[in-house]
Write a structure and sequence with these properties.
Layout: H1 6-21, H2 25-37, H3 53-60, H4 63-71, H5 86-89
Helix pairs in contact: 1-3, 2-4, 3-4
Length: about 90
Amino acid sequence: MSSFLPAELSQIEAFHHSLLNSQNPAETQQIETALTTFPSLATLQNPASGISPLMIAADRGSLPLTTLLINMGAPWNALDRFGKCAGELH
C-alpha cells in the first residue's frame, strides 16, 4: 500500500510533467523556483514507476536540469522499478 496521499501523487506527477515539458531557460528557472520553495521535489520518486526527477532530466539529456537537481539534493543512485539509476537510462 502506498504511503502517498492522492494530493501528493498529483504534485509528483505535475512536477515530473513540468520536467518532461521544459524547453527553455525560463522554464528551467520556474523549476528552480519550485525546487527552492519545495526542496523535497528533487528527491520524490513516482511510487508506481520509481522514476525520479533526476532520471527524467538525465534521460532528456538536460545538463542544466540535471545539474540543478543534483545541487538540490536529488539522489544520483536512486533506482526505478527496473533497478536502473539516472546514469543508466540514457
